[in-house]
Amino acid sequence: MINIKESESLNPLNHSCAHLMAQAVKHLYPDAKFWVGPVIEEGFYYDIDLGDKVLTEEDLPAIEREMKKLAKDGKRIVRREISKEEALDMFGNDPYKVDLIERMDPEDTVISCYSQGDFTDLCRGPHVESVKLLKNFKLLKVSGAYWKGDSNNKMLQRIYGVCFETPEDLEAHLQELEEAKQRDHRRIGKDLGIYMMSDLVGRGLPMYLPNGFILWNELENYIRNKELKRGYKHVQTPPLGNVELYKTSGHLDHYRESMFPIMEVEDEEYVLRPMNCPHHMVIYGNDIHSYRDLPLRIAEIARDCRYESSGSLKGIERVRTFCQNDSHIFCTPEQIEDEFKGVVDLILECYKELNITNYRFELSLRDPDDKVKYHQDDEMWNKAEDMLRQVLKDLKIDYVEKIGEAAFYGPKLDVQVKPAVGNEITLSTCQLDFCLPAKFDLTYVDSDGSKKTPVVLHRAVFGSIDRFIAYYLEETKGNLPTWLAPIQVEIIPVNNKYHLDYSKEIYELLVDNDIRVELDSREEKLGYKLRETQIKKIPYTVILGQNEVDNNTISYRVFGTEETITLEKNEFVEFIKNKIKNKER
Fold it and tell me: Does 277 qualify as catalytic in the annotation?
């Protein structure tokens, strides 16, 4: 989906359309007062004070009609530069504009405003030349928004919209929005009973429901088994730590704004952990290690907490507590290439099995001019960055370099995944670290008896499991492969009086074979039950009538089809088990 804010042509078009909308609102509601109306990635919005009038979606068509009338009139959009005193005189009756003007930089002696017909507003621009260019627009929704984003202030009304150069582009964009709506993991998560949120529990703190916990568990077991086969050792560490731990690691200096406030307990200070590497450093330091012990691959599905502003929270994609599929590989410098290759190989293996195909690699490097964000050690940075470049070259992996995107302690490889809708997300990451092992005074005894400092690879295949579930629900539209589906088979007896006993027998057979199954024995019509299985996106629906009872068979339908297939009951069991084993739909 195009980023309208960054588009050279669509940015001024949407900026102008925001003013057109404000002008239409002013015509319909003469007492309306306006706060700000910026261009955003998805189009534009305007925050409006309408007094006691509360807008609903039903009010938007009337505003659109007035906008079209104004656009047809074709007034020119005229820019004027005025002084602060002139601005205060012009907007003296509008407390929102007065606040904006008074908070402007004192050195900005010239203020710009834009006029079109009977409407004038403060704005830096840019705008198009005439409102007649604003023909292809759509108002999308209305919501509440606190003035200045502060819940102590008055609630304003925010109208969202979008504008394009041609009707074809607008229609294509609206279709994309509808597709995004159908794929939104928040909607799918609710429909499938994956997770819930509660303000009583707290914003950004998801609770996984029974179906969601099954999905979570399957993913956790999947990646843990992959790691076990590759020699990883799993640990469990607490989700908080002493402040001294994060002072030692440097996270308190570099990451404090993203951490929850410090808690004082019995003259000690603790903090909810934002990441797991400090704990794993301490675990490594608990023993004396020889070069023969390395590489040591420590892994954990670990609960972390980071402070995210309420405006940035989004379902389980962006939360305040999440679980990382995390690992820290302690190795010698000579082992870096093999270990890094092993991580990339694991990532690609998982992507293949999960049918993730649209991705690319980014090598995130430090900005050498940034003396605050990054650990200061030019030799370390140059060595680490050159080493990763060489490994990627050896692996014949295409990548792009991103200056200033590294972690504070070292460069990293990020895998950027392009979802079916929306912007790219970072899914997997592998970071090379010469810094933290030295901070924690970690060592190993080398072959010559000397003590050396190990190198650490920070690695996450799924990244956050929460974010991965959000991504995967949107990719599949909730039509999960059988091995991940919370309910793999739904059994529906055609008539409870004659077919329920056989349905119970089949239910027990599937349960005994570790197949997740539900039996719908409600006194409802068959068609109603079948429609529900489609809404719940259950991979296989078993329909049992007299023919199945008489022949000891099973008839089933695959999700999304109406074809009925009949198999001998044990043959069906093996069929489902193979689907699960091979991770097929």
Answer: yes
Assess whether pLDDT exceeds 70 at residue 313.
yes
Residue 65 is among the residues annotated as catalytic for this protein: no
Would you state the pLDDT for residue 176?
87
Write down the pLDDT at residue 149: 80
Selected catalytic residue, list 33, 251, 273, 306: 306
Single-letter residue type at 216:
W
Q: Is 488 a catalytic residue?
A: no
Taking 3-state DSSP, the helix, strand and coil percentages for the chain, each rounded to the nearest 5, stand at 40, 25, 35
Which tens digits make up the pLDDT trace of 459-516? 999 989 999 999 999 999 999 999 999 999 999 999 999 999 999 999 999 999 999 9
Q: What was the pLDDT predicted at 411?
A: 86
List 17, 113, 163, 277, catalytic entry? 277
Of the residues 26, 273, 320, 328, only one is catalytic, namely 328
Residue 328 among the catalytic residues: yes
**Catalytic-role residue among 184, 326, 433, 520:** 326
What is d(CA 388, CA 47) in angstroms, rounded to the nearest whole number? 47
Q: Lowest-pLDDT range, 36-45, 131-140, 286-295, 420-429?
A: 420-429
Which of 145-149, 192-196, 461-465 has the least mean pLDDT?
145-149
- Across 393-468, the runs of DSSP E, i.e. the strands, are 399-403, 412-417, 425-433, 444-445, 451-452, 455-464
Which band of pLDDT confidence, cut at 50, 70 and 90, is reported for residue 392?
Answer: confident
User: Distance between CA atoms of 76 and 128, rounded to whole angstroms?
Assistant: 9
Which of 547, 529, 546, 528 shows the shortest CA–CA distance to 490? 529
Cα–Cα distance for residue pair 199/489, rounded to 1 Å: 34
| Cβ–Cβ < 8 Å for 339, 347 | no
Single out the catalytic residue among 15, 458, 459, 579: 458
User: Across the chain, what does the average pLDDT equal?
Assistant: 91
Phi, psi (5° rounding) for residue 478? 85, -5
Beta bridge partners of 458: 328, 431
- Per the residue annotation, which of 23, 116, 157, 324 is the catalytic one? 324
Q: How far is CA 234 from the centre of its chain?
A: 26
Residue 326 annotated in active site: yes
When pLDDT is cut at 50, 70 and 90, the band that residue 108 belongs to is low
Decide: residue 98, CB within 10 A, 0-12 exposed, 13-18 middle, 19+ buried.
middle
Q: Is the pLDDT of residue 376 over 80?
A: no
Coil, helix or strand for 308? coil
Is 458 an active-site residue?
yes
Given 138, 412, 499, 579, which residue is catalytic?
412
Q: What is the pLDDT of residue 372?
A: 66
Q: Which two tokens stand for residue 483?
A: 């091995």
DSSP 453: P
C-alpha distances out from residue 339 to 198, 294, 391, 488, 489, Å:
42, 11, 10, 37, 40
Residue spans of beta strands (DSSP E) within 5-110: 33-34, 39-40, 43-49, 78-82
What value, to the nearest 5°, has the Cα angle with vertex 404 and ends 429 and 437? 55
324 a catalytic residue: yes
Nearest to 40 by CA among 159, 194, 146: 159
The two tokens of residue 243 are 């402040």
Asked if residues 46 and 21 have their Cβ atoms less than 8 Å apart, the reply is yes
pLDDT of residue 5: 84
Q: What is the C-alpha separation between 529 and 495, in angstroms, rounded? A: 12
